[in-house]
Design brief:
heterodimer, A: alpha+beta, Rossmann fold, OB fold (Dihydrolipoamide Acetyltransferase, E2P), 2 domains, six-stranded mixed sheet, 22% helix, globular, B: mainly alpha, MetI-like fold, 12 helices
Chain lengths: 356, 225
């Protein structure tokens, strides 16, 4: 189902972009990388805001760019969300929303009303941009991009310019987009947390090249991911809430191969959720451990091992049923326990992050 | 109070400044836009040419314009061939000269306004399906409005204050080329100090009022966000 084929070569002083990609035509694809990795430039090439000297771009069978063709930005059926909301200062919120709507000829997949409802900005329509908070501005920016009825939504770090509180304010809306939008979304981010929450597919970039590319769950479980994540190394599991224990305020989430207990966040039973388990929160024991404060203990088998960023550390991938977890151990403890592929182990998980 | 010839001179001055401002809005806007948006090598030379009237003595500018528009100059031969005759010592000759003389006062504020808008609003407009021309009228013009007001007021006021170029190109023909500044000069030459005082006061009050109005409503710089 790859409906976006992109191939760009771009040479700037001190920076080259060289990518050849096929991106899925649905779901959220994260372009992930550190600053300077070329992810924003790639997004701008997709939008036609940047013109790669050699490029070919095909969207759902239509050529947007090749040696002979160049479709200017304003003729591409895209929605684009900039890092700063970049609202038009001379128009109020409704004027900003209507700007693209008036000019768009593409089918209204997400109409204006729906965009306003989805982003919760109905009470802001008469306001001028300079009277809005940063978070409100960005919500208007997202609604404005949706109101044109795009066939693809491109988002350039929409949360990067916001502080933590504003981020928390917007993330739920982005998660709703993820659930309710039928069009593909390309989401540029340098935040592993946002990627883990929102993405279905990940394209990791470094130095203007794609270094890893695949479905999120499988890609994050790779030990050879050639991009430094540091403390953020970890996996994401697709899970379902199986039980809510109201006495202890805990919720049980079931994933293929086991289940985990986590704080009850009010998510109803049966709801599909994502669970993020960081490698630093996973430890391994060879014998079944003594009862301890750690509630989540699972049985698994060591699948593979790889060096970590620090020479004293190792990353160990453990197979648990159909799922995989990654644990970070010191090299010494791995040697003392005799950790090796095929070894049955008890996996202790200190902390689990539940994401709707 | 003011004599009939004073009022005639003032009216002529207003007409000259108004028409010049209109013409320069049409000519100066595209020039300022190209200067603001271009990264080409000719940006420097063009900017320098536009700024020349700021530093050239009006007599130098007037001299060259006189030669160009005179019967043997290229412009003069063109206008003669078109049956208009030659432009020096006519009102329209003054308009042409004023348009050169006041060009930087139109172009520079506009260029600043366009530059301060930056790339982002244009990119946003493109992602919202606006063609470049559409973007210019629906985004750039409204955002640059303070710049247009400044440029218009400065151009008008500067043309009102023109003297040297008028003398070189227009001479001193009542009702045709005798603008207020020349009229004052005449009064002084004729030792009519009382008349000179009255007209000079009108000019002073006008200039001060215009500048005061502009400084009081000192516009916030146009921003895209």
């Amino acid at each position: 189902m790859d409906s976006i084929k992109a191939c760009f070569k771009l040479d700037w002083p001190g920076f080259t972009l060289d990518v050849d990609l096929a991106l899925p035509g649905r779901g959220v694809t994260a372009l992930f990388g550190h600053s300077g990795s070329g992810k924003t430039t790639l997004l701008r090439c997709l939008a036609g805001l940047e013109r790669a000297s050699h490029g070919r771009l095909e969207f759902k069978g239509k050529i947007w760019q090749d040696d002979k063709t160049w479709l200017p930005t304003y003729q591409r059926p895209i929605g684009y969300v900039f890092q700063e909301a970049s609202l038009f200062a001379h128009l109020n919120v409704l004027g900003n929303l209507n700007f693209g709507l008036k000019r768009s000829t593409t089918a209204q997949r997400v109409g204006l009303e729906q965009a306003i409802e989805l982003l919760g900005i109905g009470h802001l329509l008469d306001r001028k941009p300079d009277t809005l908070s940063g978070g409100e501005r960005q919500r208007v920016g997202i609604a404005r991009a949706l109101a044109v009825g795009p066939e693809i939504l491109l988002m350039d770090e929409p949360l990067a310019a916001l502080d933590l509180k504003r981020k928390q304010e917007i993330l739920p809306y982005l998660e709703r987009l993820h659930d309710e939008l039928a069009i593909p979304v390309i989401y540029v981010s340098h935040s592993p947390d946002e990627v883990a929450r929102l993405a279905d597919h990940i394209v990791a970039m470094d130095g203007g090249r794609v270094v890893a590319d695949g479905p999120l769950v499988e890609t994050l479980a790779r030990l050879d991911l050639p991009i430094r994540l540091g403390e953020d190394v970890g996996v994401v599991l697709d899970a379902t809430v199986g039980e809510v224990d109201s006495e202890w305020h805990l919720a049980r989430v079931d994933f293929p191969g086991g289940s985990l207990w986590t704080r009850d966040r009010g998510v109803p039973t049966g709801k599909h959720v994502r669970v993020r388990v960081l490698a630093r929160d996973v430890s391994l024991a060879v014998h079944h451990p003594e009862p301890s404060s750690i509630q989540n203990v699972l049985d698994g088998t060591v699948e593979s091992m790889a060096a970590d960023d620090h020479p004293g550390l190792l990353l160990v991938r453990v197979q648990i049923g159909a799922s995989q977890l990654v644990a970070r151990l010191t090299r010494r403890s791995a040697a003392q326990l005799g950790i090796a592929p095929g070894l049955p182990v008890s996996v202790q998980i200190k902390s689990v992050a539940l994401m709707e | 109070m003011l004599t009939d010839s004073d009022l005639q001179a003032i009216w002529l001055t207003i007409r000259l400044a108004g028409i010049t401002t209109m013409i320069l809005l049409l000519i100066g806007t595209p020039i300022a836009w190209r200067l603001a948006r271009s990264r080409s090598w000719w940006k420097g030379p063009l900017g320098a040419v536009v700024a020349l009237p700021l530093v050239l003595p009006p007599s130098v500018l007037g001299f060259y314009l006189l030669l160009a528009m005179g019967p043997f100059g290229p412009v003069g031969q063109l206008t003669t061939a078109l049956g208009i005759g030659t432009l020096p010592f006519t009102f329209w000759g003054l308009v042409v000269a004023s348009s050169f003389y006041s060009l930087p006062f139109m172009v520079q504020p506009l260029q600043n306004a366009f530059e301060s808008i930056g790339d982002r609003p244009l990119e946003v407009a493109a992602t919202l399906r606006a063609s470049p021309v559409d973007t210019f009228f629906s985004v750039v013009l409204p955002l640059a409005k303070p710049g247009f007001i400044t440029a218009g007021v400065l151009t008008f006021a500067h043309t009102v204050g023109e003297f040297g170029v008028v003398l070189m190109i227009g001479g001193n023909i009542p009702g045709v080329t005798r603008v207020a500044s020349v009229q004052i000069y005449d009064h002084v030459e004729a030792m009519e100090y009382a008349d000179a005082h009255r007209l000079a006061a009108v000019m002073l009050i006008f200039s001060f009022t215009v500048l005061l109005a502009m400084y009081l409503r000192r516009p916030k710089p146009a921003r895209g966000d």
